[in-house]
Amino acid sequence: MEAFGTNEGLLFFLCNVLPLTDDPDIYFKYIEACARLGNFKEVERVIKETNFYNPEKVRDFLKEGKFSDPRPLIYLCDMHGYIEDLTRYLYTTKQLKCIEIYLFKVNSSASPKVLGTLLDLDCDEIYVKQLLNSIRLCPIPELVEEF
To answer: What is the pTM of this model?
Structure first.
């Protein structure tokens, strides 16, 4: 089905195979087909509910795809500790609002790594201060270490 470029057919086939396997390649193909069809809720669900996929391979695919919905990438990077990679990607693709959503709604304890990475990327100091002032629970020792 891949040879013919039919993501719908591949997805239909993999929906029936997925519950019966723990093969990382099958999970990757399923995530890939869902993302290409714009079914980001399903990609997010698979990332959150399973760990049968290769997180680095999925992360790289989601970054290279430059999809309109970054939530699956955000959850994947948060779950597997790719905070610096996520911050670099969101900053270089000018998705500052997604950085804010990540810090305020997903994981505020990752703020030291996010802010440290933003400083490494020569982010505007005013923006970094604005984020720092808006974060309610920021682990200070880690923040000092990062800065």
So the answer is: 0.89
